[in-house]
Amino acid sequence: MGASLSSLTEGANGAAMGPGLGDIPESCVACVFTYLTPPEICNLARLNRAFRGAASSDSVWEQKLPSNYQDLLDFLPPERYQNLSKKDIFALLSRPVPFDDGKKEVWLDRVTGRICMSISAKGMAITGVEDRRYWNWVPTEESRFHVVAYLQQIWWFEIEGLLKFPFPPDIYTLSCRLHLGRFSKRLGRRICNFDHTHGWDVKPLRFELSTSDGQEAFCEYCLDDTEQYEANGSHKRGCWMEYKVGEFIVNGSGPASEVRFSMKQIDCTHSKGGLCVDSVFIIPSDLRDRKRKGILK
Asked: Which residue has the higher pLDDT, 158 or 292?
């Protein structure tokens, strides 16, 4: 690419041929950059001085930041972002920003600049989690929060969560990240133990979502339908699975949206166990779908 661009400004013998990329005014380059993604802008910044200057312009990066980016900065100490350019603020917010005592994280998608969020199991109300006969907290590097809740056995399974946050206008998907079986490492290899895994093939787990403006969604998943998944050549045991609960729409920049969610299996006719609960994700719907297809990284 560098050779082809050089040919725009040099002749066959290295002589100048006339106007080239280096002659484009920085203000014009900045206008073009407003239509590009942050990774594209950073790649083009290496071309010449005008492109590099435009790629650092606050007017460019102001448009890449969400309308409520100041709410995200408020979670950080002022000395972390004071005197930073808009480009550096984007880079800062594209890394997870913890809040609520580290039980929740929010960040900007590096390509689109849109809001993404994750809520740890420690940020949810889990019935019986204080009783070690039922639940344990398991440290792990497989969670972005470095800990998951592991259910050994229980009859009444109920987890609820509440989030109040000023989401910018978008369509968001809420999903839950779960894992059947307890995992660990032995001699550097990942192994899974399913001794406690039972009861999830009897009746489905019910997921619910509601918002303060009246939006609702619910769905049911059978977490351990062994016969079905063996017939399809796949299996949910021993793998992290994301279960889509539903979508909600934020239309304007009004008061903070209040989102409630839950996971329940409260049929006390049978016990269930052997389940790891990691987190809940809230991500723009089309962004989640594109990432699942491998279009965005």
From this structure: 158
pLDDT of residue 233: 46
Q: Which of helix, strand or coil describes residue 58? A: helix
The CA R_g of the chain, rounded to the nearest whole Å, is 24
pLDDT tens-place string over residues 18-55: 666 667 888 888 888 989 999 999 999 888 888 899 99
Residue 268 is predicted with a pLDDT of: 81
104-292 CATH choice from 3.40.1010.10, 1.10.510.10, 2.60.120.260, 3.30.540.10 = 2.60.120.260
In CATH, what is the architecture of 2-62? Up-down Bundle (1.20)
Q: Distance of CA 87 to CAs 35, 45, 118, Å?
A: 15, 12, 24
* φ/ψ of residue 190, rounded to 5: -80, 125
Query: Please, which residues have CB within 8 angstroms of residue 29's CB and are 6 or more apart in sequence?
Result: 50, 51, 53, 54
CA 189 from chain centre, in angstroms, equals: 27
